[in-house]
C-alpha cells in the first residue's frame, strides 16, 4: 500500500511539475500599489529623488521643495527662491542635503525641530556661482558631493566648498561601491579621483550615449543602463551588450533611472512604459503601468525603503509598490470584472469565475490580461476539469467550455458543483438549486442523464466518503447522508443530521475533504462522523488549533498537506513539521480578511507555491515561495503641540524629538497634543498605536488607529510619553519615549516657597512682638483680676461643696432605696416560696389523713397524727398572705389595691389568681399555689375574664402584665 502511495506521489509530482514551472513568477498578478496624488501630499506633480533618514522618515526632492513623510503626515519645506528640488541626501550628521536650481545646501532642525534651510552655494566665488541644477548628491570619504551638468562641488562640514570644473559638460553622475562615476559629454564615462575626472578604459563608448544608471552586477562587472541605447556590462576594460531574454519586451523604452533591488533584481523607471523589473538573466519579471494601477507611466526616480517597498517618483504624483509582499492582485486592472468565486488552471490558461462570468487569460505573459468567455455572462460558482472536459457550474445551469465558448449542458436551473462518483468513472453527480442530478461523462462525450428523486434541497456542498455514500451540507438546515442503489439510477435512502446528532447547531455546518477524509467545521469546532455511533464527535486535533468561538468557513489542502483556511475571524495556513505536529500561521494573512469575498468564501490551490483567494474585487494571489521579511520598523513622535491657549502652537517637531528628551514647560503650557507615526508604509491607515504617559496614565491604552493624543491640565512633574505601533501583520515596534517636565505655577515654584518662608518669618516675628506687648499689658490686669476672682472662687467653692454634699446625700438615699427595693423583691420571691411550701405540706397532710382513714396500726396512727399536728403548726397562716400582699404591692405599684378599686366584685381567690398572672406563672404553678387542679385554674381564669369584662381577642395574662 505504501509503495502504491509513493508511486501516486511521484505521478502527482510529475503532473504538477509543468504547472509549477509555468507559474513561478515574480508576481502572479499585479503587485499592491499605493498611489499618492499631489493634492494629498500638497506638493508639486514631479519628484526627482528620495531617501530615508536613520528614523526611516522619507524625504523626497519635489518641484515645490523638500517633502517629508513620516508614515502619517506630509510636510513641505521650500528652499530659497522656491526653486525645484532635484536631489536629496540624508547625511550622517543629521542634516538633509538638497540640490536645486542654481543652489545647493542643507536642512537642519532649529530649536523646535522644524527644518530650516541653509544655502552652501551662497559662499561660492562668483565664477562658480553660475550653474544649472544639482541632479545628484553623494557622500565619499566624509565629504558631500553635489553634481551638476557643469561642475562638481565638494563640501566637508565646517570647511569651504571645493570645486571640480571640467572642460566638457557633464551628464548624470552615479555612485557604485563609494566610487563616483560621471559621464563627460563627448569624452565618455569617467571616475572621480582626487578631485579630478579620469576617463575609464573603454569609457569613450558612452561619449555620446546618455546614461540612466550605473549599478553593480557582480564582483567584477558593472551594469550600465542608457536612456535609449540599451543595457551594457562593463568589466573595467571593455563594454559588452547585456543579453536580454526577449528583445521585444524591452523595445522602444526610455529608461530614466534603474536601481538594484535587495533581492538582486533590477528595477527600471521608464519615460513611457511605467515600471519594469528584470532579473540578472535578462528576463522581464514585471511590467507595471497606468493600466495596472500606477498614476503615471513616466517615472523620474526610484527608491527602495527599509521595508523593501519600491517608491516611484512620477511625472504626476507618487506611487509605492509593495515588492516585498507575497500577495498580488488579479482584478479590473487585468480585465477581470466582479467578485471572485472559482478558479482553474489548465496548462497556461487560467480560468477565473466571478459574479460577472467566466474569464480566461494566459499566465505565460508578464502582461496578463483576461477576456470574458462567450456565453458565460452571469454568476459562476465552480470550475472542474474532468476527463478532458472543462465544466462550469453557473447560475443558469451546468456548462461545458469548449472551443473557447461556454455551452449549456441541460436547462435544469442553477448548478453548484460537479462531483465524480467513486468506482464509476463515467458518472458525475451535479449539485443544483433543487437537488442532485446524474450526468454521464467520457473523454469524448458528456450528457445529462436524469434528475434523482428523493432530495429536493439546494445542494451546494457535496462530498463522497470512503464508503461511497454522498454527503450534502446545507448551510441553514444540517447534513444529508445519501445512499444510492447499485445502479446509481435512484436514491436508496436519505438520512438527515443536525444538532440532535452531536453537532453544536443546525446552521453553518460546512464540509471539507482533508487528507482524503471528510471533516465537518460547524458553528464552532470541527467534527468527524462516527459511523458506529451514528453521531458526530469533536475532532480535537483541528478544534484545538482554533479559538473556541471560531467558525471555519473554508479550507483547502495543497499537495504537501498544508491547509489554507478562512474563518469568521481570520485567514491563515496550517503547516505540519516532520513529526506531524501542526502549526497555525495567521500573522502574514492578517490584512486579507476584509478584502475577501464574504458571500461564498473561496480558496483554490493552483500548485504548491500559488494560492488564489476569492476577493471582493477579483482574486488575491499568494506566492508561498516568497517569504515576507518582518523587518523591524520605527515609531516616532513627530510633533508636540501646546493646546493651552486659544490657538495651538508648535513646541517641538521632527528631528527635535529624536533624542527622547523633551522640553521643560511652564505650567501655563500643561495641555499638550502628541502627534506620532510609524515608518511602516504598507496600509499605514491600518497601523494601530498604543500610548502611555508615565506618572499620569495607569497603563498602556487600547490599540487605536488615531495618530495623536491630547492631555489637558497636567499637574507639575516629570513625564515620559511612550508610543508604539502594530502593523497589519501584527508586528509591534519598539516603544518610542519622550521625557518632558511641567514646571509648577509661579505660586508653587521654589522661589515662591522661599518668598513664602521669608514672609512667614517676618510675620511670625511681628506677631511675637505684638503678642509680647499685649502680654505685658494684660499681665497687670490679670494680677488685679486674679485677686478679685480668688475671693469669688472661694465663695463658689463653698457653694459647690454644699451642692456636692447634697448630691452625695441624694445618691446615698437613692442607693438605699434601690437596696430596699431589691430586698422587697427578694422578700416577695421568698413569700412565694413559703406559699409553695405550705401547699406542699397541705398535700402531705392530706395524704397522711387518707392513710389514717385506711386503718393503719394504732402506733403508726399516733405517729401520723403527731406529724399532721407538726404540719399544721408549720403551715403559714393568713398572716403569710398578708405579708406577701404587702411586699407584692410595694414591688408592683400597689397592684392589688388598684385592681380591687377598679373591680370591687373580685373574690379573694380571684385576687390571688390575678397576682399569680401578674407574676407570669404557669397554669401548673398556679394550680399548686391555689391548691386546685389545672382544670380548676382554667375555670377560674374564665370566671375572672367575665368579671373583668374582657373581649375574646384580649389575652388575660397580657392584661394583667399591662395593668
From TrEMBL:
The chain crosses the membrane at residues 751-771. Residues 681-740 form the Two component regulator three Y domain. It holds the Pfam family Y_Y_Y. GO terms for molecular function: DNA binding. GO terms for biological process: regulation of DNA-templated transcription. Keywords: Coiled coil, Membrane, Transmembrane, Transmembrane helix. Residues 783-821 form a coiled coil. InterPro entries: Ig-like_fold (IPR013783), Quinoprotein_ADH-like_sf (IPR011047), Reg_prop (IPR011110), Sig_transdc_resp-reg_C-effctor (IPR016032), WD40/YVTN_repeat-like_dom_sf (IPR015943), WH-like_DNA-bd_sf (IPR036388), Y_Y_Y (IPR011123). This is Two component regulator three Y domain-containing protein. It comes from Rufibacter radiotolerans.
